[in-house]
Amino acid sequence: MKTTIELPDELVREVKQLAAESGATMRDVVVEGLRRELRRRREAGAARPDFVFRTVGGDGISPDVDASDVLRHAYDLPAL
């Protein structure tokens, strides 16, 4: 299948260089890169344990708890 995508100039230069050095075509380099990334993502997803979201009864978050602080701590983000 043919498709058109826009790529950053620097990435295209790197792909061309790699293709030339390895005797491959740009198409071969891009296809192999996409396959590797898709495989890596599949394997990484399969390695994750199942997450069970448990809920409990109650009235929600306590009024003295800021939901943005909960998310910040959950994702280890810096304070705003």
From TrEMBL:
GO terms for biological process: regulation of DNA-templated transcription. It comes from the Bacteria. InterPro entries: Ribbon_hlx_hlx. This is DUF2191 domain-containing protein.
